[in-house]
Amino acid sequence: MGQKDERSMRNVFPPRLREIVELDEYLQRVQASTKARSTRWQRREMGSASEIILSLRARIVEVRRAIRREIDALVVDIPIVQSALGVKVLDLMAFLRLAIRVDIERATNPAKLWRYCGLGVSDTLADTRSSAAKPGTIRFSSACYRAMTSIRWGLTRNAAYREARRQYHDEQLANGVNPLLARKRSGRFVMKLFLKHLWLVWRRQEGLPVGDGHPNDISRLAAPFGWA
Q1: Positive or negative, the Cα torsion across 132, 133, 135, 138?
Q2: Angle at 116 between CA 111 and CA 118, to 5 degrees
Q3: Quick one: average pLDDT of 62-82?
Q4: 13 in helix, strand or coil?
C-alpha cells in the first residue's frame, strides 16, 4: 500500500509527521533496550556503565516527550486521527504507526487491509505463520502488524471492544474450540474488528465506497465503539 498523490484526500499525513512517528518508534525500542541493559550491568556491578546508559535513556525520554508535543499539534487537522481518538484508551502513537503506512484507496475491502496488516489467512494458517514457514510467499507490513499488536493491548481496556471479544471467545468455546485456540482467535478477531471500523470511517471520510453491511453485522457500526 504505497503512498499516492494525496492532494485530493481529506486525510493527509505531512512528511514531517511521518518522519517523527518513525523516529519515535525507533527511539521507543532504544529506550526499552537501554533499560534492560542497565539492569544487566547493575547486576554485574558495572556501576559507571549503568549510570551512563541511564543518562542516555533520560535524554531519549526527553526527546520523545518533545516529539509527542509536536505530533499532538500536527494531528489536530487530520480527521481520521480525531475520529480514532474517540476510541477510549487507544494508543495514539501505535495508531499513527499504522495509519501513516496505509493507502485506504487501495484497500477496497476490509480483507485487503487485514492482509496488509498481517491478519490474513492462507491455507488455514495466519499469514504471519505462513510467511515464517515459507519466506517470500506472503507479503504484509510487519510494521503495521507490530502497531496492531500494540493497539490490541489497549483494546482489552476498552469496554465495547472487550465485550465484542468476550462474545466471540464464548462462541468459539461453545463451538468446541479449545480454550487456548479460542483465546488466540478472539485476539485476532478484535484486531480485525478495529481495522474494519478504521476502514469504514476512513473511506467514508474520503467519499469512497464501503458497500452495505448485513443488518446483523456489528462490525458495520463504528460509532458504538467510540469512533467519531
Answers
A1: negative
A2: 95
A3: 97
A4: coil
The 8-class DSSP code of residue 158 comes to: -
Distance CA 60, CA 43 (A): 23
Q: CA angle at residue 127 from 21 to 220, to 5 degrees? A: 70
Give the model's pLDDT for residue 120.
84
Strand partners, 125: 122
Q: Shortest CA distance to 74 belongs to which of 101, 93, 87, 51?
A: 93
How do the residues of the chain divide into helix, strand and coil, expressed in percent and rounded to 5? 65, 0, 35
Q: Which three cell numbers stand for residue 94?
A: 501505535
Sign of CA dihedral 175, 180, 182, 185: negative
Predicted local distance difference test score (pLDDT) of residue 14:
96
Closest C-alpha among 198, 222, 185 to residue 101: 198
**Model pLDDT for residues 106-144, shown as the tens digit of each residue:** 999 999 999 999 998 755 555 554 444 454 545 668 999
Q: Are 53 and 31 in contact (CB under 8 A)?
A: no
Max CA pair span of the chain: 64
Name, in order, each residue with C-beta under 8 angstroms of 49's C-beta and a sequence gap of 6 or more. Answer: 41
Domain edges within the chain? 9-76, 78-228
In this prediction the pTM is: 0.85
d(CA 21, CA 42): 32
- The SS3 call for residue 126 is strand
Burial of 157 (0-12, 13-18, 19+ CB in 10 A): exposed
